[in-house]
Amino acid sequence: MSVSEQAAPVAATAGPGTHPDHVPHDATAPAHHTNTGLSNEKLGMWLFLGSECLLFGGLISAFLLYRTKDVEGMAGPAVADLYDIPFTSVSSFVLLMSSLTMVLALSAIQRADHRRARTWLLTTAMLGASFVAGQVYEFTAFVREGLGYTTNLQSSAFYTLTGFHGVHVTIGILMLVSLFVMSLRGRLGAEKAETVEIIGLYWHFVDIVWIIIFTLIYLVPA
Amino acid sequence: MALTEERPPLELTSGEEPERKPLGAFTRPSSNTGWRSWITTVDHKKIGILYGATAMVFFALGGLEALLIRAQLAQPDGQVLSPDVYNQMFTMHGTTMVFLVIMPMLAAFANYLIPLMIGARDVAYPRLNAFSYWVFLFGGLFLYSSFFLGGAPDNGWFNYAPNSGVAYSPGHGIDFWVLGLQITGIASLVGAVNLIVTCLNMRAPGMTLMRMPVFVWMALVAQFLLLFAIPVITVALFLLMFDRLYGANFFVVEAGADPLLWQHLFWIFGHPEVYILVLPAFGIISDVIPTFARKPLFGYPFMVFSGIAIGFMGWGVWAHHMFVSGLGPVSVAAFSLSTMFIAVPTGVKIFNWIGTLWKGKLQFTVAMLFAVGLVSQFTIGGLSGVMHSVAPHDTQQTDTYFIVAHFHYVLFGGSMFGIFAGIYYWWPKVFGRRLSESVGKVHFWAMFAGFNLTFAPMHIAGLQGQPRRTATYAEGMGWDLMNLLSTIGSFLIAASFLVWVYNVVRSRHNPPAGADPWDGRTLEWATSSPPPAHNFDVEPTVEHLDEWWHQKYEEDERGRPRRREHYHYLSEVDEVSLADGGRQPQVDAGSIHLPSPSYWPIIIAVGLPLISYGLLYTYWLCAIGGLLVVGGVVGLGLEPSVDPEAGHGDSHGDHHDDDPDTGDDTAAEAGAGGEDEDEAEAEFAGVGAAGEPGDAAGTGADATGASGKEGS
After folding, report:
1. So what's the ipTM on this one?
2. Every domain of chain A and the residues it spans
3. Which of A13, A38, A174 is the closest to B673 by Cβ?
4. Is the pLDDT confidence value at B650 over 80?
């Protein structure tokens, strides 16, 4: 079925609230006839990411509040004593590199280079998966050291914050894999580049959040 | 198409063949009438009506809880409720009125009116809009099911730690509160993204931001507040949930936790929430007052920017809820000052409404009475609010009935009066018939008297020291008379509500109101009542603030407004509407593609309370709910927003073919599987999608069918 091939946006779309007079003359540009020039989907993602900032802001605040609490008589070890900074640095580097491959995937699909797009999409997903695997390893190591989820204040806050981030990465991986499968089936044409871009926005956001978490939680001493 | 047609089973993987209908077990719904049309609708107007009707049912429930509270407190040593049930009543009363009445009521107005007011055919993501409604409904039902499952939450709507912990609240009540608000929070967040994108992206040509009606502006500011406030309470709810269900230590004082963490998180959400509840009501009366004062709104830009200012400053005042929690003098002084400052933009609004009324040709319709009621009653509540910004005064009044009086003047005298103003104002637009003015005046005056009789005496009881949240009080404290008056007043409010119900029921027999019964100023009055499914036959082009007024009126030689001899409605209207020189629109042939109804939003929404029950009782329910959510998201993702086989055309020339494959965009999200993160992008399909060339012909009859209804 060649539906996706004929889908290049030559004609102006006429969705509700779209404006035929505002059609960009560049026929290769994605058809955005909105007041802001951003498609509804991309604007929606930006807004959603704005909301996510507050979610992570709240979780990070809770952790920062509790890690400076007096640890006298606290059950179990302190989180800061268990950090394996070299290991986490490597997994952070892996996650940051996945942002690079994400950009390469977007660039490839914009050039309709589907083979490379698939390669980079899969690489991004694999790098993300390596990061999550590293987190699972870190958690099990901590638990083996006697720091369970309910052990003390810090452990609850630490696992909740990093766990929330890990779930976000996992969801990103699932979206990337879906893109990969769509591309395999020939349903991710160049006109869908914006879909890749929007998922990329999410992916970069999750990376940036990790930079903040890694700096504040692991590197800056309490 | 026939239901017997063979279809493959529900497929959970993404990446289906594009030409196959990916609906699995279901045929895509197509009916526009009957019960099925309501559960599958993606029409912002029907969803608005659903929101409003549901909110009013919850209003009756929350009102019943209030009456029980007042019956208990009518006399000293009341015996109507046990202290335990009393706690459940005031908790559920507050939670219901905030989360299940005022917020959805304002969502109802925003849903129904924003597309009409900005000249759009629907919201940005129509199916996510339906999803928001169903999630809200099932979240509310989930919360209320706690009454039958071991007792409702009983820790107040603020749910302070550590009282909310397992040690002090061992039952499931608090769990229902936590999970129920998580669910309704999803609804609010999705709705906020949806409506913001609608306001920013879907405006008709010429509808610049500074030509948007003030209601749209205030709803937009409130949605931004929701967008940033919901995640904060989500964090608080998650932490509490992990504490209660999985033994985390966030609010366990024995483990060294700081219970103030809850208060900060809650009020960083909670104070913007106050403006979420009241700003749209301000917007409603900013449209009602100019219509009935026969004048443009005084100082439109000031109204807009004061609303935005309130939106920003609302984030810097939360700790005034915590003056007695031991914040320290610097914090208290800072938050005292910021609380005083936020009264300034609110005062600007009051003055502008008075400026609009000044020398207007006032028409005291019921809507206008409620609007003026808001201006007067909210001012009283606002003034007692400024009193509380003075920390010593606040310290004296904290946890007394003075506070109860204050926030009821703000939320009942403000939000609810605004909501009733909006109900009376837009009822003829939504249902084609007005509510009775005479019955409505009885409603207004009874509610106004009952409201003041209930809440004014609470000021005095509070100043005399009567504590809140206490089930009984002893005789001889000097509170007897004030409490008796409050109870009498509350039953008067209940009676006035019944008058409103009577008014609604009998409104079916009122004559058709016509498209523009109040000689309105904004675009929703330029289309028929009720509007056709596609809102406008002709896409509006906007040149002025109060565009519809400018289309109807011109200036005479002396600069006074004079009605034009001819002007055109934007959709086919009835005879009543044409009496004053209005004309039918010049309809061109063509087709308007509206998003098609869908089962998936309600299916996903059903899954969420199932997951929540599962967390409390058995994980099997989580699995079923999870399957529904994942399957629903996949189904939603694979289904094109516009059914290529459905005839949703209307006569309109503005039609171009779009990418017929658009629905596939969502397959990516579909694969991600039912997580909150999908909300923002799960509706990639957009609304103008998937027209098939052959579809244009033979579907023009719908417009006549839809707009012909109100004439009968």
Report:
1. 0.86
2. 40-219
3. A174
4. no
